[in-house]
Design a protein that fits this description.
By secondary structure, this protein is an alpha/beta fold. 34% of the residues lie in helices and 24% in strands. Strands 7, 8, 9, 10, 11, 12, 13, 14, 15, 16 and 17 form an 11-stranded mixed β-sheet that branches. Strand 5 (101-104), helix 4 (107-123) and strand 6 form a beta-alpha-beta unit. The longest helix is centred in the N-terminal third of the chain and has 17 residues, at 107-123.
């Protein structure tokens, strides 16, 4: 057996604890699979006195994570601190520059600084591995970089945030309002005290940026439409169900005639579709390649075990002596692609309106849709008492986003429209 691989771990939170447990409990199994022992030489975290349920007795503890890099016996730094900047970014930069490989679960860091960090890794002939940054235990990075490397990709889409999927599933299956479902997610530990990173779509956007760059060999881009799930109500969940759909927060990246189109937003997807059946805190990703066709990956998108599994998988690669380009191709060969605008998106739409109970309301709405070349696919109106406002739901056939925006601006101007319309895109996944 080869000499042991010595690693240091910065950050012993949820994923850090899971990583240590796997490395300790499955030590013999991992040694057999990679041909050498993996030793945790040192760790760094804020509070040494905290009970983490781990045996760290023979492991060095350093308060400053940057001091881990100075240990000559350490070959790999595992960065599990988080954050796009600050100490996490400095730690990764310094480690790569002195010739130490890095494994990270930090999607914000890779989404915002992945190219510059990849360049440093290439210059020093070391590995920057980030499987755990996207979709928890689902091996989407390895799938794109290795298993499907023969393919030209045209679409990647799916559920990339387990917290949002758990909330939307609770709203659908348990008839909860958004606030109730969010509180339940926080109680269980799926959502943070400040859940904005998840529910506003930022987490999904970071992950989508990473896999888009990896799949299409284009620069990282985080400047695209990002909508979260705060405005999804139980009414929308109920109407979607009546129409044969469920609502999911999706990240979608496609190659269109006008360029790369990235977007994050809630969408109605068919109940019995592959993505529609992904429930709870699970993630589901669809990849379309020119030779493999469409494949689907589904699994735990978050949590100590799933994410730590991906972290350890990257460590095993390094223990085996694997050195690969972080974005498959050299950074120097990554070229910009045209960026398509969201206004050019062709899709079907769900529109929920609250209207006054007056004659001519529906005629005015359908007239505006027709003027903008928008064809209705279905219409729902639940019973209401005379004189009360009415809920009206319309779904459209495929149209262009710019036409929907123009039509909605005209509809909002009608005196009979009581609330801002709710508009959700419909995806056939």
């Amino acid at each position: 057996m080869k000499n042991s691989l010595n690693i240091a771990i910065a950050g012993i939170g949820t994923v850090g604890r899971g990583t240590v447990k796997i490395l300790q409990q499955n030590a013999d199994l991992l040694a057999g699979r990679c041909g050498r022992n993996i030793n945790i030489v040192a760790v760094s975290a804020r509070d040494k006195t905290k009970n983490r349920g781990l045996d760290l007795g023979n492991i060095k503890w350093l308060e400053n994570p940057l001091d881990l890099v100075a240990l000559p016996e350490v070959e790999v730094i595992v960065e599990l601190i988080g954050g796009a900047n600050g100490v996490a970014k400095t730690l990764v930069e310094v480690a790569l520059k002195v010739g130490k490989s890095v494994v990270t679960a930090n999607k914000a860091l890779i989404a915002h600084h992945g190219m510059e960090l990849a360049k440093i890794a290439e210059e020093n002939n070391v590995t920057l591995a980030y499987e755990a940054a996207v979709a928890g235990g689902i091996p989407i990075i390895k799938t794109l970089r290795e298993g499907l490397a023969a393919n030209k990709f045209s679409k990647i889409a799916g559920i990339l945030n387990g917290t949002c999927n758990f909330i939307l599933t609770s709203m659908s299956e348990e008839k909860k309002e958004f606030a109730e479902a969010l509180a339940k997610a926080q109680e269980i530990g799926y959502a943070e005290a400040d859940p904005s990173f998840d529910i506003d779509g930022v987490d999904t956007a970071h992950k989508l940026a990473i896999i888009t760059s990896l799949a299409y060999s284009c620069p990282l881009n985080t400047d695209f439409l990002v909508e979260g799930i705060r405005d999804i109500s139980s009414l929308d969940i109920e109407y979607a169900d009546q129409l044969g759909f469920v609502i999911k927060l999706l990240g979608v990246s496609t190659i269109t005639p006008k360029g790369v189109l990235q977007r994050v937003h809630p969408a109605l997807v068919p109940k019995l579709s592959t993505i529609g059946r992904v429930s709870g805190a699970y993630n589901g990703i669809i990849v379309e390649g020119d030779y493999v066709g469409r494949i689907t990956l589904e699994g735990a998108g978050a949590g100590a075990g799933a994410t730590a599994s991906s972290v350890v998988g990257d460590i095993i690669d390094i223990a085996r002596g694997v050195i690969y380009k972080p974005f498959t191709v050299p950074v120097a060969s990554i070229k910009s692609l045209p960026i398509a605008k969201i206004d050019d998106l062709e899709a079907s739409y769900y529109i929920r309106l609250v209207v006054a109970d007056k004659s001519g309301v529906l005629a005015a709405i359908t007239s505006i849709l027709s003027e903008n070349g928008i064809s209705m696919n279905s219409f729902l109106q639940n019973p209401h008492k005379t004189g009360e406002s009415a809920q009206v739901v319309i779904t459209t056939h495929k149209t262009v986003e710019s036409a929907i925006k123009k039509a909605l601006n005209s509809i909002i101007a009608l005196e009979t429209i009581i609330e801002k319309p709710q508009t959700i895109r419909i995806e056939d996944l």
